Amino acid sequence: MTSTDGPLLPPPRRPGRYRIGLVCLGNICRSPMAEVVLRDRVDATGLAPYVVVDSCGTAGWHEGKPMDPRAAATLRAAGLDPSRHRAQQLTPEWFGDHDLLLTMDEQNLADARALAAGTGATAEAERVRLFRDLDPDGRGGEVPDPYYGGDSGFEEVLRMVERTSDALVAALPTVLAGLAGPPAGAGPDAS
Predict the structure, then answer these.
(1) Pairwise CA distance, residues 77 & 71, whole Å
(2) Is 24 a catalytic residue?
(3) Regarding beta strands 2-3 and 6-7, do their DSSP bridges make them parallel or antiparallel, or are they unpaired?
(4) Taking the model in full, what pTM does it have?
(5) Of residues 2 and 123, which shows the higher confidence score?
(6) Which residues pair with 39 in a beta bridge?
(7) Choosing from 24, 105, 127, 166, which is the catalytic residue?
(8) Of 19, 29, 30, 166, which is the active-site residue?
(9) Which of 40, 54, 145, 166 is catalytic?
């Protein structure tokens, strides 16, 4: 679901800030890596006052804990700070509070949509979808879970997350035009 200008993003639900949530299973590997990378890209482009990035897991096993040490080490090696992350669980409120929820795999997507359906929340297809649907490599698909593998799996996830985050940030100025207040020129091309 991309255009020649980048991924198509749903409009903001309300004025003020655009909220992006990243979702995986336990919120200790893929989604927190994506959160840290995307937040870094948002900060670097001056969009932090207008974009909120957070992450959660469909399961609550690790709630309140930091990310997997291998994920954290991979981020640190790339010059990013993983220390702020604490795992959270997806709740029905996330569907109404976020403009966009991006899941790391098909099972996360199915679980998120099932949670929404079971609680009466709304999980519109344009707002709850796969993270790699926005990947400019054109292949889409899932972000593989590196938990049971070696370091190379975390490095592969980082490459996917960086590439997709860059595309997402490039598309944000268009959707932010619908918010009150973003300064002219804010975004990836601002000097």
Answers:
(1) 10
(2) yes
(3) antiparallel
(4) 0.90
(5) 123
(6) none
(7) 24
(8) 30
(9) 145
